[in-house]
Specification:
It holds the Pfam family PhaC_N. By secondary structure, the chain is of the alpha/beta class. It has 20 helices and 17 strands.
Length: 561
């Protein structure tokens, strides 16, 4: 019966869109007293709204009974408040939206995960039905059409057709940026290449550099140049200017021929390969390793692997840094709505038929997590207002998607996201070694982002409870990308909290004893890393006779579509 249920569910509702909503309705019907209380609350709100409607129609002053959230820019134009017709359209939409969302989140007798999934899918439907998304119910769009004599509608149609041709709602014009020309322009050389990655070694900007190299393991879900955008945002340039010797991964964009590439391969031919390349090039016994997002998860697994694989004094990484990284996937953030047995089976079967997961599919899923800001904003401004999307390097990078090999990604989803095995000692075996995070004793610097919905900071903190050795934890303002791409500017644009963390700490305990600081955490990181980075020596060239240049940075793999 279980197999029959799973088969039917996987065919009819593979991503679990309908089932949570049905379960929520049945749960409310099974709790009539709570349902009556909710209807009483809804009736109270509707009476307030009716009184507000009467006052507005009579021309009397009346404050909005329901106000948009501070981060909801859909109704920011004064027309939605000053004109009674549009004010009432906004208020009735918000009233039913808020009450429906609150009811789903408060569903009695339903597991919290099911409540969140039901609320997620219903929220996306309600967001799609907002009056701002349609020409005849959006007064701003109609005003622009009149003011431009219809030119905004003509431009909007052109934008719509361009998006249709691209198969995506574009967030920026792809012609505004070109990798290697106005993005990823830091000079360097590809000094190593295999079937999975190119290793880029950057040319120094200082006469002397710290002896110990910095090795950066980037996520293979997107391309590496998020750390080397335009010059003023480039973390790579910042590190070079600080006298660091930097190596970075540029991952191959896999196709169907790489379907059998496993996570073992990514660890040995990827993470271990760049560590060994940097050690060989510099002649140093150890490196400082940095991992970002899934690259950080892979680095964490490598550290557990290396501490089992090598004698204690021969582990090739001396200290390490993690950016927005999960090792405990118990509560992985909003992406949780896509994580259950049926969804994983559907995604895995889809990958099995093609040999890979298309990056556009993953990008679409992440955009659904913030559909108002990442989908409907661009629909409204592009299609209804006829505006050309402004050039934005981060959004261009976000659209420059990559594919995931079937074997690696299906294993990753099931063993980490679904089964959460990494936090259990010796539950996972990778590249011939059982993994135990508790064996990691090297000093660790961890960075998380306060508004990160992909790797929530409360969950990223959990690495502190699993690894041993000294640890420093940093919480940056902003989200998954801008919390990390956080250059030093005057006056400071962001803030952060930084302090030592202990294995017995909870995230709340750490936060309560840590003071807020204005500015970028990059300076705090340099204060931590430089004492470990070795003596200053003559800067090494980007390539040498033993490791000749295979291509100038940014290399060839990053240009593959």
């Amino acid at each position: 019966m279980r197999e029959l249920h799973d088969g039917v569910e996987g065919t009819v509702d593979p991503l679990g869109m309908a089932a949570p909503l049905v379960h929520a309705q049945l749960a409310w019907l099974a709790h009539p007293q709570e349902l009556a209380e909710r209807f009483t609350r809804l009736s109270t709100d509707l009476w307030k709204l009716q009184l507000h409607s009467v006052n507005r129609m009579l021309g009397l002053a009346s404050s909005d009974p329901i106000r948009p959230h501070s981060d909801d820019a859909r109704f920011a134009d004064p027309v939605w408040t000053e004109y009674p017709t549009w004010d009432l359209s906004k208020e009735w939409y918000l009233a039913f939206t808020r009450n429906m969302q609150d009811m789903l989140y408060d569903t009695p007798g339903l597991a919290s995960k099911e409540r969140r999934r039901a609320a997620f899918w219903w929220r996306n439907l309600l967001n799609a039905m907002a009056p701002t998304n349609f020409l005849w119910t959006n007064p701003v769009a109609m005003r622009k059409a009149v003011e431009t004599n219809g030119e905004s509608l003509s431009n909007g149609l052109r934008n719509f057709l361009d998006d249709l041709k691209a198969g995506n709602v574009r967030m920026t014009d792809p012609d505004d940026f070109h990798v290697g020309e106005n993005l990823a322009t830091t000079p360097g050389e590809v000094i190593f290449r295999n079937r999975l990655l190119e290793v880029i070694h950057y040319a120094p900007t200082q006469a002397k550099v710290h002896a110990k190299p910095v090795v950066i393991v980037t996520p293979w879900i997107n391309k590496f140049y998020i750390l080397d955008l335009v010059q003023r945002k480039s973390m790579i340039r910042f590190l070079l200017d600080q006298g660091m010797d930097v190596f970075i991964t540029s991952w191959k964009n896999p196709d169907a021929s790489m379907r059998d590439c496993s996570f073992d391969d990514y660890l040995t031919e990827g993470v271990h390969a760049i560590v060994e390349c940097a050690r060989s090039f510099t002649g140093q016994d150890k490196v400082h390793a940095v991992g970002y997002c899934i690259g950080g998860t892979a680095l964490s697994m490598y550290m557990a692997w290396a501490n089992r694989h090598f004698p204690a004094d021969q582990v090739p990484v001396a200290e390490w840094t993690l950016f927005t990284t999960l090792v405990d996937f118990h509560k992985p953030g909003d992406i949780e709505v896509f994580i259950d047995e049926a969804s994983i089976r559907y995604i895995t079967d889809n990958m099995a038929s093609k040999g890979y997961l298309d990056g556009k599919e993953m990008a679409s899923a992440f955009r659904l997590l913030r559909s108002n800001g990442l989908i409907w904003h661009y629909v409204v401004h592009g299609w209804l207002y006829g505006e050309t999307p402004p050039p934005f390097d981060v959004l261009f990078w976000n659209m420059d998607t990559t594919r995931m090999p079937y074997a690696m990604h299906s294993w990753y989803l099931r063993e980490l996201y679904l089964n959460n095995k990494l936090i259990h000692p010796d539950a996972l075996e990778v590249a011939g070694e059982p993994l135990d995070l508790g064996r990691i004793t090297q000093p660790l610097y961890v960075v998380a982002a306060e508004d990160d919905h992909i790797a929530p900071w409360l969950q990223t903190f959990r690495v502190i409870n699993h690894v041993t050795g000294p640890k420093r934890y940093v919480l940056s303002s902003s989200g998954h990308i801008l919390g990390i791409i956080n250059p030093v500017v005057t006056p400071p644009k962001r803030k952060f909290w930084a302090g030592e963390a202990h294995r017995s700490d909870t995230a709340e305990q750490w936060r309560n004893r840590t003071e807020e600081q204005a500015g970028s955490w990059w300076t705090d990181w340099m204060d931590w890393i430089k004492p470990h980075a070795g003596e200053l020596i003559e800067a090494r060239p980007a390539a040498n006779e033993q490791n000749p240049s295979l291509a100038p940075a940014p290399g060839t793999y990053v240009l593959e579509s």
